Amino acid sequence: MTYSATQLGKLSGEIILEAQKTPVRIAKNGKECVAVISMSDLELLEEAKKTQHLRSAVQDGFAQIERGEFSSRSMDELFDEAKRRVTAQKSS
Predict the structure, then answer these.
(1) What residues does each domain of the chain span?
(2) Closest by Cα among 43, 46, 40, 48 to 21
(3) Mind listing the pLDDT tens digit for each residue in 56-78?
(4) HEC states along the chain?
(5) Which of 3, 41, 51, 70 has a CA positioned 20 to 30 A from the CA of residue 57?
């Protein structure tokens, strides 16, 4: 269901109850611009984004390996470098 921004102000309680069951779209000037969703739907969406980001990073890593772009450094060396980079970023 879609509500106008004006209705959102007047019917916020009802919209929140509905959004706990199914996403609710909000339109401004006749154009859908935001949605109200349940916390469980939000958590699923955030987890899906993290999973997609991780999947993309892994695919990028495999592509680098296929191109011969990889390091022979140990995990300890890579971890130490990562810590140095984080420390450097925090101090800048």
Answers:
(1) 2-37, 41-91
(2) 40
(3) 999 999 999 999 998 889 999 99
(4) CEEEHHHHHHCHHHHHHHHCCCCEEEEECCEEEEEECCHHHHHHHHHHHHHHHHHHHHHHHHHHHHCCCCCCCCHHHHHHHHHHHHHHHHHC
(5) 41
